[in-house]
Design brief:
This protein has 15 helices and 17 strands. The strands form two sheets. Strands 7, 8, 9, 10, 11, 12, 13, 14, 15, 16 and 17 form an eleven-stranded mixed sheet that branches. It has a six-stranded parallel sheet with strand order 3-2-1-4-5-6, sandwiched between helices. By secondary structure, the chain is of the alpha/beta class. The protein starts with a strand and ends in a 6-residue tail after the last strand. The structure holds NADP nicotinamide-adenine-dinucleotide phosphate and L-homoserine. The site of L-homoserine has 11 residues, from helix 8.
Amino acid sequence: MKPINIGLLGIGTVGSGTFAVLKRNQEEIARRAGREIIIKIIADRDIDKARGIVGDDGTLITDDANEVVTHPDVDIVVELIGGYSAAKELTLKAIGNGKHVVTANKAMLASHGTEIFAAAERQGVMVAFEAAVAGGIPIIKALREGLTANRIEWIAGIINGTGNFILSEMRSKGLSFDTVLEQAQELGYAEADPTFDIEGIDAAHKISIMASIAFGISIQFDKVYTEGITKLTGEDISYAEELGYRIKLLGITKKTSKGIELRVHPTLIPSRRLIANVEGVMNAVVVKGDAVGPTLYYGPGAGAEPTASAVVADLVDVTRMHTADSKQRVPHLGVQPNLLLDIPILPMEEVVTSYYLRLQALDRPGVLADITCILAELEISIDAMVQKEPKKNEEQVDIIVLTHLSVEKNINAAIAKIEELPSVMGEITRIRLEELSSK
Ligand code: NAP
Ligand code: HSE
């Protein structure tokens, strides 16, 4: 059978990984796909770099991305340049020219997925995006196909490798935030703009895509509550440990009777949970289905070949389905496009979760009573309260409060009131806490 021809846009970290995996495992991949998959043409801004990676094997190399998306022999365009506008324009052009697209670009899909999928459906082509969420973990396939019998109740995931790498290295080696971020950039984990990783934006892109598939709603990245890891202190990481918790940057989405929760923030999770022990660049996603219960998916969330593993899996999938009737293919978001639901996304103020609060207060009679009184007035029930020893030459002490489930707006009100107490100093640190129990 005639080979499938690939046009590759971008031969950076993931592009070079994809090239290497396709070349190394060529025969095995052809046996699985039913035909050979060949990279016909590559576009990258740096032709010399591209030629250095590819060598002289007859692959066309250009610095004009348009040549790839218009090339008459190209069946599948693999978009690995990243970013928003150019990637979107090239993807739509490829689709318009009747080409299937494989992409790792969660930023583009989170912002323009609706338009891109609609264009692909009109044209009868596929847009595959396994590599866009959790790197090498086949979580899109699990959500769209493996768990299709279930009503999904919630998803919670460590879905940013850079963020998890930073938190792990800070906790285990006591390294500084900046040192570890630099290492993540050198290892090719970080986004071109690393604020996407550390401010939770990359995780927000990914959770918005997973929520859409899990609940059959459109992708709503603009509604994700997003808080990064830049304000976390070593103190909170160690207090959390003393209390039996680890702090992880989680993407969380939950279906509630009032709407869908969609949020990314640092989260205390019990140390005994498997996901709490996921370290380094590894990602893990827990998906709770009504029939299957909780399921856990674990693997590398970034890096050249782990991400290439997902890109090449998509290439094999598209190759297998290439000649199938487009109505028989798995829909982009797992449900038929005309059957997406319009369930509201819950405002963050209405979210119900537990909380870790750390405040500094003078060690005087009545201080704890004032604090507990404010919490009680706002219907916030205390799960645990710890007062630490004062540090050397300091009059104030750290007080840590863990709450039971509470409404976010009540916690906001309590924080504002407690900060006004004359015996309380500075700002209160608030970190959300999830038990992630299987119930
Ligand atoms: P990268 O290393 O920066 O590679 C992108 C390559 O594309 C670079 O060589 C870049 O050249 C080139 N490029 C950019 N715009 C171009 C254009 N208009 N025409 C031609 N070439 C262009 O990025 P990456 O880490 O491989 O990431 C690629 C995509 O995969 C992104 O969407 C990213 O979010 C996603 N992703 C990455 C990982 C990971 O671990 N790195 C994991 C999962 C998903 P210049 O360097 O000269 O700009
Ligand atoms: N920058 C991303 C991360 C790459 O660190 O997880 C994978 O999407």
